[in-house]
Design goal:
Length: 324
Amino acid sequence: MTPVATGFAMGTEFAIHTEGLTKRFGSQLAVDGVDLRVPVGSVFGFLGPNGSGKTTTIRLLLGLASATSGQIEVLGKRIPEDLRMVLPEVGALVEGPGFYPYLSGAANLHRLDTADGHATSATRRVRVQTALERVGLSHAAGKKVKAYSLGMKQRLGIANALLTPRRLLVLDEPTNGLDPQGTREVRSLIRSLAAEGTTVFVSSHLLAEIEQVCTDAAVMSVGRLVAQGTIAELRGVGGARVRLESPDRDLAIAVFSRFGMTVAEPGADATELIAAFGEKEPDPEVMVAALVDARVRVRSFTVDRPSLEQRFVDLTGEGFDVAG
Ligand SMILES: Nc1ncnc2c1ncn2[C@@H]1O[C@H](COP(=O)(O)OP(=O)(O)O)[C@@H](O)[C@H]1O
Ligand SMILES: [Mg+2]
């Protein structure tokens, strides 16, 4: 047996750190040996198709469900042992926050803030107003929640997570039910929170919706973590190719070889050249200048990168459905 403390020090640079995290429902492993490492200050995309175990993992992180086995640290504290210590610093939106339909959005937030034993009542009114403003719901503050659209309810859930300043925000599919405009607003909200230093852990089954805001990501597939790292790492280093269209093929190959590049694939015809990078990836402007210097007639020049989408399809064996 490995001692509990090995490789799992308190107070690390991770906002969320799990080891061997496992949750079993009957015979089904919903979460299967997950080792998550979420750097402090990151916007961390927790990606995976529906049913891959994202919500279950999030419920374990927040102490809403107990793990079958494995360890969890959130903001350097053990979960579930130190849950009471960390909860005030963690804002969360997990599937379907329970709102009272016959109360207004503002009244619901007042209730939830009152229920939070750590929130001071003196500043409640202002904090509720500010949170509603941040998610663009000021105009609907007095409206009954039963008249809210799904997107408005989702934003009210995010406002609830923002009632007090947080070091960590955990958002489970925050763009669910939002139209493209609402989705853009959530993205820009995430950006501004990250700029203030909040670590944001955000799950989605739609890669494209959060790819642009994430600094890091992890990919779940059937309960297992199949990849994690910075977005650049996940895209795969060295996967980029230069695609050149020129009648001066041999001259161009000579220039590329000076940059340590090699011909990767035959082009579509005699004027197309596809070259792969060696150890370094020089700036495109430097390569184009060198080609022109060598009197290569450049008709077109592009740097192709494998898309994250393609990587994730490879990793999960299925696409991230566009329609949701
Ligand atoms: N309370 C539960 N009881 C039984 N099975 C569950 C429960 N919650 C989730 N599951 C199952 O665990 C798997 C992962 O679900 P979930 O974590 O909700 O995935 P995701 O959030 O990625 O869509 C699914 O197969 C789901 O049916
Ligand atoms: Mg889910």
